[in-house]
């Protein structure tokens, strides 16, 4: 059993004993209540009625604990669900969980915002995009991509030249054609090498990890929800159980107030305070204090921060499994928010490639064969072909990119060494977004239960 659960049981037992044995025989509260007429009212009832009256005070702390527990559970549920807007949707502000009329979980409603914040944390605190890409070996990438680049060269070279320069190409001797094609094949591997060198040098110009993660989060809300649930499973359970314990403790004070001041608004107001305070305290204790503090023989630290090493393993594993895979990263380079910059880079490398292939042919009067305008046409056509086919070539190097970047281990080491004040940012966004709304819902639910206590349950018992 959790320590918080054991504490609840101990406090509950002691309270029951005090209420059941001490209060009925205590003279002091009777003297204090004499002026208000409460004791007289009790004395005027039968013994059975008096027994029922005392049971009201026994029930209050448990109802209060129940309120704290339920309101905290509801707060967690509302943070993560439903995945899509539930209700009669007339209007919903962009990126907000509420609307007319219904609700969407805070995490799915703001999945892209949270993913963006996390990615910013990763790229500013855990690793440098340029540094990790500097680990990629262009020669290895070229070797891995060679089957794809050669296949494209074979399938397109003859067709491109034949289409652009049919008369010239058909008039060339076979040995000249063969030499041109051989040159194309030889240079195809160097094309990938040059491209990867350019990518390493200018990776931040062609890759935006934040834009990538926000888009993926929006498209895969269920995965984002599952990630946060898995990472913070212990903390969410703590929130729930702490509501039970804090609610019970506050219920003891509520009982004392109600015992001496039997006013119809005491229970609703107390319920509102229980729902509000239990939520606030639970959220505070998850993340504060950030650093360990020694109090007597106890070490006090935020619940989430105590598990930094354990959570780091989970985060590194989940992030590299769902969002930071080599296939996704390479796909973002080729088709993401900065694809125009990548296409410009491809064009530049393609033009250089054509020049390198044509240079040895100058001895065979390449310029005469194709002419200046023909060479520009050839470059443009080759560049267009490379753009359309590069998506079949670059993924061939995924295995090396994954090994070279080594993101999982890089993130794990950096996360475990991250200062506690920064590590809070991993899970804090779940509660930070619309935290006030969650606390307000808990308070309103607590007040509602207070009304039910006052006008329903206790009215019936009394």
TrEMBL record:
<feature type="transmembrane region" description="Helical">
    <location>
        <begin position="267"/>
        <end position="287"/>
    </location>
</feature>
<keyword id="KW-0812">Transmembrane</keyword>
<feature type="transmembrane region" description="Helical">
    <location>
        <begin position="238"/>
        <end position="261"/>
    </location>
</feature>
<keyword id="KW-1133">Transmembrane helix</keyword>
<feature type="transmembrane region" description="Helical">
    <location>
        <begin position="438"/>
        <end position="461"/>
    </location>
</feature>
<feature type="signal peptide">
    <location>
        <begin position="1"/>
        <end position="27"/>
    </location>
</feature>
<keyword id="KW-0472">Membrane</keyword>
<keyword id="KW-0732">Signal</keyword>
<feature type="transmembrane region" description="Helical">
    <location>
        <begin position="54"/>
        <end position="76"/>
    </location>
</feature>
<protein>
    <recommendedName>
        <fullName>DUF445 domain-containing protein</fullName>
    </recommendedName>
</protein>
